[in-house]
């Protein structure tokens, strides 16, 4: 699998959209209110909103710069709105009407003709014909003015440099006060017949279609709630992802709140905006050929979670994640919390079923929270009654029989809660597929080996679920493949799911400045595919778009382009070798030269002809040549003059070549060989070591606890300490191919004492 990080289009396919295309509007609003936008046909948009407070305000936004699409799929940045005329029909209910003092206002943010920052407030009612809840609106950006009453308060808009514009939506009870509404209010707006014409009405947009890349994609509602489902799914499809989308419904945007600001277990499971968004998302996913795995976790945004539902440490501290604002972990022992999760799960299952999708439901990372200092959260009131926990001050320490028995009971309670959740889904959708997502660094923490009793209980063993999904982004993002392999093996051994009944999640990159982590994510996804998992998911789509990550399947030919076999050694020992560089030399009129080295490393050429001494050699050579399909496939060649880390041909020792310095995090070090000294030394990447010859040392001491990965990469089980010198010794082969697609040798050649020519050329790797 290949990958790259696209920064923008460089000649790739593009198309055109009309400015104000319904799919590319976004929403913004304060917590705890909720709103969503879904497209209706080619020229319509519906907004659903749930208001809780008297100062809740949602903005329906058009941005001049596309900040949310992948660089290969984004629309062009166009801040000049002059020459544009926007028209649409407005219909609304449950929001402040067009003619009200606080009615829908178009806020335009940009700069005036002199370049000074400006904001204009355009009252839509001034450009509407009809009733306050059903009107035709026409906005000519060349003749637009802010101000409440026109023409007396007119503030002409200069539309030549606009950053964004948004339409404000508030509830009829809006006062601007920091106070709760008497009851939650649901509202909606429909814009239909959206049309933009004029000289500035057309925008270029990326229309790249990456071929299916063999990977699936994960999404999250907490990331994508402000986008239209059409826009989200367009990216998933055109970036090459296929199969099922694993969609995390989130922990902060789907629920409906009561008047006290906490989730309302007696009301609808979902707020109206979340329900509308997910119905559209499911229907569109099915129409595009995607399946849908709906994921629900044991988390709720802490500020809206009932206090009695929260897991707690022995001192009463709630179990809170490190996100800001934090989410709270729900107690598997609390009947009210679990009843609520089951209600939510049934609601999402019904959405998938009603869309005509096979219902696939993931129980996402259920666990008993462990504080950073080792305190496990088994002591909320419901858990105390259910499992009678013994005191555990630090789960990372040595535990006695009573404490391990406590963890076993906690595991049984967790398994019972997940089984009840799956049963609720299957009650709504008989035959639904059940999947379990386990976060391996947390539940199989080597520093707390007994935690698996509680957080990977034997009650989850096959066939409790149909599919086991595994995630370990803490290992992946630092390239610790050894930790991944060990954790996967432990999960398989404990729960018994064969690899064909596993999914793997690779990701994610939290911050854009860490985009280099995509290298490890791509590698982990490819390793999971090679292991034979049923599906490998990239987590998650919005981070893929933000960083420009592109994955593509290089195909069977690329996978088989190198055969890991040696050239016949007897023939190769007599080879001639020619190192070559590429240097551009320009001679000035005065005879001076300017030289520029195009290659940082030499490329080797060999002629294996001198080794062809007999008919047996000819036969071996022809057979090897045919098996490589001429120049089509590479192979290993042992350079008779340079095949060792020790000098050129000496016996290898673990201290021969310095390959890196530990930082306490990095676990992968590529084999290299240095030629020369100091700043002028030339570093050669060794991608085809002789496996059994490799020796590794850390600070001069021969090391164990490592494996040799593909491409000559040493992978430590545990990262070498900061400042530790990592060195290695090895023998190696050179990756080469036949230089030509034909081979000329004959009996007469070597009988006459002439030397045949068998040219080989080095293949760049690593």
Can you give a write-up of this model?
With 766 residues, the protein is of the alpha+beta class. Helix content is 21%, strand content 31%. Strand 12 (145-146) and strand 13 form a beta hairpin. It starts with a strand and ends with a strand.
Question: SSE layout and pairings?
Answer:
Elements: E1 2-5, E2 14-18, E3 26-28, E4 34-40, E5 44-53, E6 57-63, E7 85-93, E8 105-111, E9 117-123, E10 128-131, E11 134-140, E12 145-146, E13 155-156, E14 162-170, E15 180-197, E16 202-206, E17 216-220, H1 221-224, H2 229-238, E18 244-248, H3 272-287, E19 291-297, E20 299-301, E21 327-329, H4 335-354, E22 360-364, H5 381-387, H6 401-428, E23 433-439, H7 440-443, H8 452-455, E24 467-471, H9 473-476, H10 481-495, E25 502-507, H11 518-531, E26 535-539, H12 541-547, E27 549-552, H13 555-559, E28 562-566, H14 569-572, E29 576-580, E30 583-587, E31 593-597, E32 603-607, H15 615-627, E33 634-637, E34 657-661, E35 668-670, E36 672-675, E37 682-685, E38 695-698, E39 701-702, E40 706-709, E41 713-716, E42 725-729, E43 734-738, H16 747-751, E44 759-762
Parallel strand pairs: 17-18, 17-26, 18-19, 19-22, 22-23, 23-24, 24-25, 25-26, 28-33
Antiparallel strand pairs: 1-27, 2-16, 3-6, 4-5, 5-15, 6-14, 7-11, 7-15, 8-9, 8-14, 10-11, 12-13, 20-21, 29-32, 30-31, 32-44, 33-43, 34-42, 35-41, 36-37, 38-39, 38-42, 40-41, 43-44
Helix pairs in contact: 4-6
